[in-house]
Amino acid sequence: MDAFLSPAHHSVFCTVVPxxxxxxxxxxxxxxxxxxxxxxxELDASxxxxxxxxxxxxxxxxxxxxxAADGPRRTVYDAQHRTRLPGKKVREEGAEAVKDATxxxxxxxxxxxxxxxxxxxxxxSIDGSGxxxxxxxxYGEDYNNAFWDGQQMVFGDGxxxxxxxxxxxxxxxxxELTHGVTQYTANLDYHGQSGALNESMSDVFGxxxxxxxxxxxxxxxxxxxxxxLLGPNVSGVALRSMKxxxxxxxxxxxxxxxQPATMDGYxxxxxxxxxxxxxxxxxxxxxxxxxxxxxxxxxxxxxxIWYDTLTGGQLAEKAxxxxxxxxxxxxxxxxxxxxxxEHRALQKAWATVGLG
Length: 356
Known about the structure:
The structure is a single chain. Strand 5 and strand 6 (153-155) form a beta hairpin. Helices cover 42% and strands 9% of the residues. It has helices at 19-26, 31-57, 101-121, 170-184, 192-214, 272-275, 281-294, 301-311, 321-336, 341-352; strands spanning 14-15, 74-78, 88-92, 133-137, 146-148, 153-155, 224-225, 240-241, 250-251, 255-256. It is of the alpha+beta class.
């Protein structure tokens, strides 16, 4: 059963592109590239502060009503390259596709996320009670990020150089909306290992949403987060790799993907809320191993175990990796029994990343 939480309680501003990557770009000798990255960093910083103030004041989204039908309530807005949200309404639930492909991709991604959580886990929207799904596209000028602000999704167009349109990857849409699921359930503190777990939950379910949409099995999936998002001038394939953390990109401007795959490479840092986008590679890799061991459709058994752990009410806000490992093994046993394939897969996965 989901833990009961106030929607604004510890809600945070969560971006898909980590600040360490934008920091690199902001130091580029290419002034246009550096300016776009710097504008994104400055806007992210102001939004993060605004979100923190809203949380302290207790400003929360309106309470959702349980929908009459098992379907989403989507609305997509066009920010028209400004930063005032939500912008102009351009497509709502049930309306025909529009000429703007970005709007249509956002609409489809919201639906794909809703569908996995409903059909896979019986969850009505991200709050479990039919919360409307709102998204704004064309945010800012050359904005190099996408984020969940505690109430809605927002997508930048990218600068066309380092990053492309942030609606091109359905896993990015799923990633950000899953921050909402975490906000309404375990409400993991966005710092250190609990923050890395928060990021990992979003990567896990973002990848599962893509796999579900494409009808892929675990061995067919690419296990990449943000494939197709990097611009033509970047040496890399994605923002992160769950299969092989640390290999998603290796670029002269952006540097090398810093994610570790095991606890031997754990990074201790004060930046990025204690390395939440970096150390998330460790639980990400554990999920990939568990899903690969079990085979078939990863959202079924492996995804169910992760969902049970996230929403079961036992995962504390400040949980660390060891806590999640222990609780996920217990969730596997509770649902599938002791000594079965699921239990063995979980034990192997956590042992492999150094948390056995």
